[in-house]
Write a structure and sequence with these properties.
It is built from 24 helices and twelve strands. By secondary structure, it is an alpha/beta fold. Strands 4-3-2-5-8-12-9-10 form an eight-stranded mixed beta sheet. Strands 1-11 form a two-stranded antiparallel ribbon. The chain has a two-stranded antiparallel sheet with strand order 6-7. It comes from Neohortaea acidophila.
Length: 650
């Protein structure tokens, strides 16, 4: 935007229905878009030319450029990014053509108008509470000949009133075409409705009236949208609705877990109700993780798993017909072939499992003999013999994990042996479950189960004798391997449908506040428990239940369950077969499964089992409230704490 046009705009008379402040704000939006295209250097030059304008404008303009001053709002200002995103998603957007488009806080409306032109929706509702966007950006869209745009200023970003405003939108035929809610039990309730699409920009902070704190809108709305998708509420009452949201990039670690120990109540709750894929961003999720946590920077994921996952995603993209636009890079897709050829191939612990009881007994004997032969040698002060690992990916995984961490080579060698034997244990347990399904019950199976439990107990005792950092390495990397190879994968980042496109800081204004576009597709998960509780009640309990379990994520799952209710683990675990099935992420002995490894399938089963449990507390709210005191207790499990090395037990 040339400076002369800016000077002309600031001198132009304001609209009679706009206050002086609103008029100045609208002009500043023009400045924002112009600077977003021109770059930061030109932005400072433009601001300097506003010397003759009021001090208020100068302060606001400078605050929008100064990276040290937090911004309550960020806008997408790059046409090329919008064009590439729509081209990239085109194969998945075709089914939404002619739909009803609900647009939350479109701001400068650049992405909104581009997507509108592609989808040609029959109805496009713009919900923008900030009036300074109206005249320069929204009004021209409303004034188009034959425009299907609609506009409302309902305040959907205020933390105490936004759901009330959504209810008004859904019930007002002037804002949205009426949709008939589907009755309980209708199978179409849990199917995706392509006739409605929700998009929006959730990069907004609501300033508190007192103090210096602010409320972040993105995590607040995302959690509610996930729960409403599970309960078929609000926009999902006539079928599930897909959502495309621009979010502050800093929230990526809260949405995606790259390793099991970073899972928390928030992203596990999202995973219960939503398929999540990242469409575009400036920094990779791993880079944002590393900038946030020094601990994570030293304990990243194995390069073998990253490369293998990228190959799987590339295959999904080819099947879906998705192509990275020319001139635009994808962030992770190029890593699919970046692993050096000298690095190890991946071998799943769920492959080559025993098919008969005789084969399984032979595998148990071999693993027991190997453990008893290798561990005395590993306890020696020097490495006395070369060891051939059954799972070749363990060697580079431990080497990558140990970079930047103190500790001698002998401890890392011990870690490799224990992880390799731990994966062999998973292989044995998976073979037992497969044989159990075919043979059903026999005395031989009972004996095999007892042998497996005894071997697992021996393995756990050995792991308890090593140094804390060695034990952390074993648990972290063993769980990472289990999470990756189970079906479906545990981590939502491993379930993504495609790779994110590479954006630039100049694609957003202010350019120091990066955004990321996410694609949220509700899952068809059905939490209904007929004749026992309403779906709304089950979903509300599920939200609190997930938070309760993940607040004790370093405990074993039975210990975490017993916090919810007395004898809950003893009664509920047998009702959920996935918990004891290693092929689905479980363990034959549930006490060997930590709460942070619980899957969405397990949580669904536990929630339903809870309502079928005849001994459940009279009020689950009271039970959770009584256990809340345990949240403040430190989880001294040792795996996530930075501690000094101590000598091995002799």
């Amino acid at each position: 935007m040339p400076p002369s046009s800016l000077e002309h705009d600031f001198d132009s008379p304001r609209h009679p229905f706009l206050s002086r402040r609103a008029h100045q704000s609208a002009l500043l939006v023009k400045l924002m878009v112009g600077v977003g295209k021109a770059g930061r250097h030109d932005a400072h030059a433009l601001v300097k030319q506003l010397v003759g304008v009021t001090p208020v404008i100068r302060r606001v303009a400078k605050s929008r450029i100064n990276p040290r001053i937090p911004m309550p709002r960020v806008d997408v200002v790059s046409e090329s990014l919008c064009d590439d995103v729509i081209s990239y998603l085109a194969p998945t957007l075709e089914k939404h053509k002619g739909c009803t488009l609900v647009d939350l806080q479109p701001g400068a409306c650049l992405f909104s108008s581009k997507l509108h032109d592609f989808l040609q929706p029959k109805w496009h509702l713009l919900i923008e509470p900030d009036d300074h966007y109206y005249r320069p950006f929204i009004k021209p869209l409303l004034d188009r000949p034959g425009s299907t745009y609609r506009y409302t200023q309902l305040n959907i970003h205020h933390q105490s009133s936004y759901w009330h405003e959504f209810s008004r939108i859904l019930r007002d035929p002037k804002l949205l075409p009426p949709r008939t809610p589907l009755p309980q039990g209708d199978p179409n309730r849990r199917l995706l409705d392509p006739n409605v699409l929700i998009i929006g920009n959730l990069a907004r902070e609501t300033r508190a009236k007192t103090g210096t704190h602010s409320v972040q809108q993105a995590p607040m709305l995302l959690r509610e949208f996930s729960l409403h998708a599970l309960a078929n509420q609000f926009f999902h009452e006539a079928g599930l609705v897909r959502m495309l949201f621009w979010l502050p990039e800093k929230f990526k670690p809260d949405i995606f877990s790259l390793v099991p120990w970073t899972r928390n109540g928030f992203n596990v709750a999202l995973d219960m109700g939503l398929h999540m894929s990242e469409v575009a961003s400036v920094q990779s999720t791993e880079a944002v993780y590393q900038s946030r946590s020094k601990v994570y920077a030293r304990r990243t994921r194995s390069k073998e798993l990253v490369a293998s996952n990228a190959r799987h995603v590339a295959e999904k993209m080819r099947e879906a017909g998705m192509v990275v636009p020319a001139g635009r890079d994808a962030q992770v897709i190029d890593q699919a072939g970046s692993a050096p050829s000298k690095r190890a191939n991946l071998l799943s612990s769920l492959q080559k499992i025993a098919a008969t009881p005789t084969e399984l007994r032979k595998t148990i004997d071999q693993t027991r003999t190997r453990l008893r032969e290798l561990w005395p040698a590993a306890r020696a002060k020097h490495q006395t013999k070369a060891v051939t690992l059954t799972y070749p990916q363990v060697q580079p995984a431990v080497d990558d994990y140990g970079k930047g961490l103190p500790g001698n080579k002998l401890n890392w060698w011990r870690s490799k042996i224990l992880i390799d034997i731990g994966l062999s244990m998973i292989n044995i347990e998976a073979g037992f479950k497969a044989i159990e399904e075919s043979v059903k019950s026999s005395p031989e199976l009972y004996d095999l189960r007892s042998e497996i439990f005894a071997l697992d107990s021996e393995f756990v005792d050995i792991c308890g004798k090593v140094a804390v950092r060695t034990r952390s390495c074993v648990s972290d990397l063993l769980e990472d391997q289990i999470a990756f190879f189970q079906h479906p994968p545990l981590l939502n980042v491993d379930q993504r449908a495609y790779e994110p496109l590479q954006a630039q800081p100049s694609d957003f204004w202010p350019s120091q506040n990066n955004l990321a576009l996410f694609d949220f597709v509700p899952k068809g998960r059905d939490l209904s428990v007929p004749d026992l509780a309403s779906t709304d009640e089950v979903v509300r309990f599920c939200a609190d239940f997930v938070q309760e379990i993940m607040s004790h994520k370093t405990r074993s799952l039975p210990r975490a369950l017993d916090v919810v209710g007395v004898n809950a683990a003893k009664d509920l675990i047998p009702m959920v077969p996935a918990i004891t099935d290693p092929r689905k992420g479980g363990r034959l002995n549930p006490h060997s499964l930590r709460a942070r490894m619980v899957t969405a399938e397990m949580l669904e089963g536990l929630v339903k089992a809870y309502f079928e449990w005849p001994f459940r507390p009279v009020s689950w709210e009271l039970a959770l409230a009584e256990s809340a005191g345990g949240h403040a207790e430190a989880e001294a499990e040792g795996d996530d704490a930075e501690v000094d090395e101590k000598p091995e037990s002799s």
